[in-house]
Amino acid sequence: MTDSLGFPGAPSGPRDGRRLRVLAAMSGGVDSAVAAARAAEAGHEVTGVHLALSANPQSFRTGARGCCTIEDSRDARRAADVIGIPFYCWDLAERFREDVVEDFIAEYEAGRTPNPCLRCNEKIKFAALLDKALALGFDAVCTGHYATVVLNEDGTRELHRASDMAKDQSYVLGVLDEKQLAHAMFPLGDTLTTKDEIRAEAERRGLAVAKKPDSHDICFIADGDTQGFLAKHLGTSEGDIVDETGTKIGTHEGAYGFTIGQRKGLRIGHPAPDGKPRYVLDISPVNNTVTVGPVEALDVTALTAIKPRWCGVAPEGVGTYTAQLRAHGGETLVTAELVGEELRVSFAEPVRGVAPGQAIVLYDGTRVVGSATIAATDRAPANAAHSG
């Protein structure tokens, strides 16, 4: 296998000698700045672009916690000036609102737990942005994600984990199809360096974002209060918190404020009979009820996922893979089969905290097979659940 677009992690030129026209998505953070700098150093014709994702950026985070602020756009522009590449700011606020923010609200309202970063990669960075880039004659979109695209001898492309598993971001890129991978460039993916070394590289290059803190929170929630954000958009609606028998043990102000597996913030008036903590087991938006119970009741043995997207050809028949269920989660062994438009997945060992709305990403070794949205789960029988 060879590197897609001839661009390995180290700053070297294209394998076939082509000088590519590259659109570098620059969030204003250190990773995207270094990625753009490496692409330019490799000899490609790079243009930087910052995506304006809010119609009112002042209402998004201030400082360095997000990727949608006025400060971020200024940081991105300064980095482009230092690198010596043209820079533009593109307004994708309306598309972002419709495809990411409104989707996020609707998913929570329906009792599901979405991943807005994954949706942003699918709908914004590698759909809206890529479509516009190709229309303008660019060959590739470059981002600061830690993942690797490789080109096989038969011309097909594969998405693989980053060389450094500690920084791997392939989970949130699992929605990319082969056409999108053909125009994706991830200069940091093969870098076996720590984040401190990336920052040191940025400093050597004279990039002021070298010491800028990473963003970990949802960029469009200004104060980090997800429940408050949802309450503002969905309103408050008092409902019951019940145990596994259906007995009311508390109240809440909106079922959307809970996620499967949640332990803290339940505000239940009295402890469980066994004195052990209780966790959110189920969220029912229909009757605005939240069901809680012991941790063992969270064990999931199988799931059904919808809207599969494949990083290449869709697999056929039953296959054995590893699966990742959260952006920063570990891998678990599964068997999976595509039945019609549904992905049926069985776990070798029960897993906990699996919530509808989350993405499941399948891997074959380091290769990303594809991604799908969890629609339903099968729980382990109560007498078979293990304690933990």
Provide a descriptive summary of the structure in words.
- With 388 residues, the chain is of the alpha+beta class.
- Helix content is 22%, strand content 28%.
- The chain is built from seven helices and 18 strands.
- A six-stranded antiparallel barrel has the order 13-16-15-14-17-18.
- A hairpin with a 5-residue loop joins strand 6 and strand 7.
- The longest helix is centred in the N-terminal third of the chain and has 20 residues, at 116-135.
- The protein is globular.
In order across it, which strands form the biggest sheet?
A: 13-16-15-14-17-18
Which consecutive residue ranges, at least 5 long each, have pLDDT under 50? 1-15, 59-66, 384-388
Question: Strand percentage, roughly?
Answer: 25-35%
Q: What structural class do you assign from the helix and strand content?
A: alpha+beta
Order of helices and strands: EEHEHEHHEEEHEHHEEEEEEEEEE
**Rounded mean pLDDT score:** 86
Radius of gyration: 22 Å
Number of helices: 7
Main pleated-sheet profile: 6 strands, antiparallel, barrel
Q: In which range does the helix fraction lie?
A: 10-25%
Number of beta strands = 18
Shape: globular
**Straight-line N-to-C gap:** 43 Å
